[in-house]
Protein 1
Amino acid sequence: MRVREMTHSNDIARMRELEVLLERCNYQYYVENNPTISDFEFDALLRELQDLEAKYPENADPNSPTRRVGSDLTSEFESVEHRYAMQSLANTYSSEELGEWIERITREVSDVEFVCELKFDGTAISLTYENGALQRAVTRGDGKRGDDVTNNVRTIGSVPMKLRGEGYPAHFEIRGEIFMPYASFDRLNREREAAGEAPMANPRNAAAGTLKQQSSQVVARRGLDCTLYHIASDTLPFATHIENLEAARTWGFKVSEHMKVCRTREEIETFIAYWDTERKSLPYATDGIVIKVNSYAQQRTLGSTAKAPRWAVAYKFQAERALTRLVSVDFQVGRTGAITPVANLEPVQLAGTIVKRASIHNADQIATLDIRLGDMVYVEKGGEIIPKITEVELSERPADSKPFEYITHCPECGSELVRYEGEAKHFCPNSAECKPQILGRIVHFVGRKAMDIEGLGGETIELLWENGMLKNIADIYDLNPQQLASLPRLGEKSAANILDGVRASKGVPFERVLFALGIRFVGETTAKYIATHFRTLDAIAEATTEQLSEAEEVGAKIAVAITEYFADERNRAIIERLKSAGLKFEIEEKQRSSNALEGKSVVISGKFVGRSRDDMKALVEEHGGRNLAAVSANVDFIVAGENMGPAKRQKAEKLGVTILNEEEFMALIEGAPTTEHTPTEPEPTKVEAKPIQGTLF
Ligand code: IVH
């Protein structure tokens, strides 16, 4: 073999080796909760595989561990038919109903074993495996058809992409729940609040919303998890549900540890009673117990109704709630000026903690529930961070109670509140002078995910503001050592720390600067999309609302917020000062393959033969073009794969937008001169298959 061929086969062998190693590490980390290598070592191996895949894209495995990182390109979800319908479950809410169900079952089949399981509170998923490899992940949809969310599901560490062990059928579907553990949920909501976005109501909504995200990179960061509880196949190795699930565990799936075979109603009731309490210490949300007939033969005898199997039932837990008195309501003002009412309660014990405060979302909620001061109210913890008021106990309402009068003026600065169309919340419009808004914006600006100015915490910001040194984010770059030294409670070291942090922040990349500005609804991810799309702040500032909506992930609401931000001359003045201070207001250009698509706006639509839609979009960017989400007159051409939607095609034809097929598109970019210097004689590659240290794995 010649040197080049040898290197090639070594590289391919190394790719296969890395795939196996990284998947093993993933399994140990996500399923066994037992990491065997450091994050640093893992990242180094992953990067090595990414580099090899970039070099040999034709040899990259679609189930490669690199796919778990996700892609920042958007994808539409294809609707696919379920081979086995995805049914839901009949619910019972009381011991009597459960008893009736058990009686019905024992009348029809004898000698029954039941399996009791936790009912996970997330969103259902069906995973298809062919010869041990993950083929497809589909949501429940209407039970007959669901959305293909494979790319997003691949980012979930506990979902095996290749199976381990043996004995699995050549083709099977395995179903379970994708859920968001409390820790991920709390982190997500902290991030959303920091970005001025409404927090997610509960982990279930957060899981379902995340799974339908257009960008798998966003999904990868959200910390979803997946547990499996049902297998469907024409050929299964065992005759009972529990045996097959135990087998599935050996194939690499995360299967709940908390399942129990029960033979009597008493045993089932004991399991329910135990978990009704114990579930509170689980790190994820559950909303009941599922009871299933264990034997497949008996399941077949019992059959199904149109909606649900007769051989299974869900016993739903009562949401935990407590009754207490509403003492007063505070109104918090956020950095965007949004007003959030917070209830002060007489302290009450609820789900293991003492509750003194509860959230009330807005004025409408107060009106709908007719909440009044002095009322006895029910508070519930539904997985939310703070409990919420769900109902008023009218029988205990004081005789002299009066309807609640919502505030009309800002509790901080006294400005008259406004209510924007389509917004549930009231806002204080005095963004320039209202203290919590000013301080909130500065705190956001210096935050770790924004400009990351260490040493400048909330207290110091307030101190600087009180001493007239900090009125807006641009003032940060005018702070000087003398000023800081004059402040009480601020040592020399802290002052130096702040100034170092301020200096270092000038190197923060544009997308983070854009996020730091604190434009409403422009969170970390949206800022990244907008920065990539428009490349400079000036381009964003000049874009019309319509042009802004053309960027991926930018809906009308965000586009309007951006337009309004730049329409305000106070914001423009601050940006000018930040520019003079030397902050980055342009994206750093990546090396391009060619300029063939320079200035061209492209829509990629449908399914392609040679490459995935995400790969096609990456090619557009590599060759200098821009991806647009929707067909409009601003689109230069569409690359249409198989099954491009007829509505899209019609619109394109009406607007006279050129439609290219995959081959024509490839010809367009392949013929283009490269922007890189190409050596005439390819250099032999220096990468060699590295032996892996036995101790690590
Ligand atoms: S079995 C044909 N088992 O609850 C039986 N479902 O309310 C399929 N769920 O759609 C479902 N935990 O999304 C089953 N241990 C468990 C479950 C479970 C949560 C969900 C599932 C289902 C919904 C019905």
Protein 2
Amino acid sequence: MLLGVNIDHIAVLREARKINDPDPLDAISLVKRAGADQITIHLREDRRHIQDIDALRIIENAQLPVNMECAIDPDIIDTVIDMNPHRITLVPEKREEVTTEGGLDLIKNFQVIKDISARLKEANIELSVFIDPDMFQIKMAKSLDAQWIELHTGLYANIYAMLNSNLKNTNHSIKELDLPRNALHVKLQEATKQLQSSATLANDIGLKVAAGHGLNYQNVKVIAEIPEIIELNIGQSIIARSIFTGFESAVKEMINEISN
Ligand code: PXP
């Protein structure tokens, strides 16, 4: 299992004060030393955390592949192609959201993504699409010539959190999760099965399968056990733990969780 460490939240902390510390660039040698496989960053249209200069410095200096998440907005696409990361993961983006809620709709955005896909092929940059675990979206990813899909694990993680902590339904777009515990258990099983069958389908049609969003030290094992998922991209939980245990150790602990 490969681990991509999403370091956006280091920039979140810096931007809270608009100063120079902490610098996400300082994380990259630690990610490598800890044994992870990839740096993941999200250059958002509103530049709320990672800035262009961060992305450029990270791509220049990372001794690991850089997976750059971005929206399908033409300006951002021009910017990230110029930066020449190893992989671009297309994600949906709404300014008002706290984090990426829901996958990209490949059906609705087919032509735009088809054009981006052709440009990435020419630039020799891998294409991944961040999608919900949905059969139609997976087939569409294949016809868009993506090499990777990243399955959105947010629904799974959200239900898991509601069952295992006192958290209320944090994704307000999913009203149907306001359910009693026994019904939530069923929903969790369904969400897990959906991720499993999606990964199998994607793998069968020749897509490489990553997964991410909301994964943490408690809920990651079930996802790491799905054989067709070969990479996880994890950010918030690693950065949160690093405050208490140190960054390198937090990355190592996650590697232990996903490789056991
Ligand atoms: N993968 C993608 C495509 C994402 O958009 C995010 C969140 O930026 C992550 C993984 C990481 O999610 P988290 O920070 O919840 O681990």
Protein 3
Amino acid sequence: MTLERQTEQQGQQRVQPQAEAQTDGDVRRIALLTSGGDAPGMNAAVRAVVRKGLYHGLDVYGIKRGYAGLLADEIQLMEPGSVADIIQRGGTTLYTARCEEFKQPDVQDQAARILARHGIDSLIVIGGDGSFRGALALARRGIRTIAIPGTIDNDIPGTDYTIGFDTAVNTVIGAIDKIRDTATSHERTYVVEVMGRGAGDIAMIAGLAGGAESIVIPEAPFVLDDVISKLRHGVERGKRHSIILVAEGVCRGMDIGDQIADATGWEVRVTVLGHLQRGGSPTAFDRSLASRMGAHAVDLLLGGETGKMVGIRGSQMVATDIAEALATERRLDLSIYELAGILSL
Ligand code: ADP
Ligand code: F6P
């Protein structure tokens, strides 16, 4: 069925808009997609965009499989029921993909033409910084585009938190608690490798909240001898097990585990938590963050904005130019890292 036909049919059944669209432009038909690595809470953001858009009387379309689905014309009309029962689900019901060819300008031109052909004037992209670059490219091609930060890595400037980070941290803490049980029983040292791409946020916050003995992150200098001295010092004080959290952006956990075992002669075990950090039901924090960000993205479009990303600063929703956010160097609050070190002595 064509999009136009789908829209006509929906027009016959559509719930009445409950608010006047306060648009200073011609926002009428919006689309949304999820792109890059999935993150728990993306579904809550999708739900919020769809329901807030319908509330304002807009036509809302879901694009499947990120930019790859956009190029393949995988576009479907969304109704209130399309997003029923998904707020609690991890992953993304719109599916996600990585699409290398979308980095090419001529392919971005083609994507803008596809949207224009369907009369879609506005787009909301939920994803990480790579997805934001694609969003910016479309904004520069005249599609009103707003980006929502959805990634477990928490590595996007312009927001204190990204959707999915809190859930991932809670998953890591749950894993650390379990590993600590067996580490205690066997009196062993464990190295746990966590995700985060180039960012140490997951390792730092999960390390603080999980009581890790050492945390290794890309943002702080790391000297293996210091980690080992700290472990030895702990043993001298009667500590009989330890957990070292390593962010994947530094090196493989296995490498650190081998080096500690070689230097100490202790039995060391290594756990790579991997993709289980990307799954699971989103926490209340992520659901609420995603719901607020999704709704704010629609408000930004209705207010005539484009090329902006939604963020949270303190407890407030904020908007930043995507270009500015991408050009900003992100600073991790290393006082938290230092505190974790003090508390784990
Ligand atoms: P994330 O969005 O989670 O950071 P990626 O970095 O893999 O994940 O990016 C997701 C997708 O965003 C890519 O597969 C590609 O389609 C698009 N993308 C990434 N970088 C660019 C870029 N420089 N220009 C246009 N699109 C991009
Ligand atoms: O960006 C999210 C993330 O999970 C990173 O933490 C990790 O490095 C990467 O994606 C893994 O990507 P893939 O899904 O391609 O294995």
